[in-house]
Amino acid sequence: MNHKKRSHKTGSLSIFISLAIICLTLMEGCYKPPLEEPYRINELNNLILLANKAFEKGQSERAEILYHEALKKSRIIQNDNATVIVLISLSRLYTSTGQIEEAKKFIDSAIKLSNRVSLPENIMEELSFEQARVGFLLNEDVEQILKKLISSNSLNIRIKSLNLLARLKIKQHDYAEAEKLLNSALTINQKINKIEEANSLRLLGYLYLDKDNALAENYLLKALKIDKELALPEKIALDMEILAYFYKNTGRIDKTREFFNRALEIWKELGREDFEIKIKKELETLSN
After folding, report:
1. Mean pLDDT across the stretch 25-29?
2. What b-and-e string marks burial along 194-232, b requiring 16 or more CB atoms within 10 Å of the CB?
3. Which of 3, 23, 71, 149 could pair covalently with 161 via S-S, beta carbons 3.0-4.6 A apart?
4. pLDDT above 90 for 246
5. How far is it, in rounded angstroms, from Cα 106 to Cα 100?
């Protein structure tokens, strides 16, 4: 009797083990490991990240080389999304070094590509914004592009577009409208984009240069504080330059000279001769 029970138990155990092995085999057959990105896409993504970091650090020449290498790789594998992203990045790089006509060539290439292929909405909006930014620098009519973008679902795009439209309104001497747009940008920008927050504050400071000394200085110093926290040399130089004009208007010549010299030091290090020449002329007028 005991022997029969043991045999029955042994048989049941064998069946259980067999079933377990079958189940495990089936599970192994169904299991698919997570798909890895093809190595060329990984290479491309890494190049873009390295280029972005170099650009952020102010290493323009290194960023340029990396972006061009990324552009070559994206075209080889016909990755249209990446190609447009790199073209936009190259446009931003060239505008940062004052090469606006070169920047426009890259944006024109991106627009041509976007007319042939279907791109995600976020990339299309970034492309439209960059088209407007470069167009603004070249005195083109970009108002309609910006008016469309300020209704974007992306808060980041809306903030950037409000700031750029405000700059356009300042150029058109419509200061009241510019102020409204900048205040709208600040209202939306609840720590979403610190760079654009500083841009809004800097522009408001500029608007108040001839209206309210206390407010103008307050806005400009806030912009400078943010740009220093973000360690953005071009923006820091712009803040200091506008502050120098502010101190010049208020008769504080020592402060004027101090801030012009500090801005000049940055532009020299960045190799921006156009800004150097302009500030040197301002310093000469102070000596006369």
Report:
1. 50
2. eebbbbbbbbbbbbbbeeeeeebbebbebbbebbeeeeb
3. 149
4. yes
5. 10
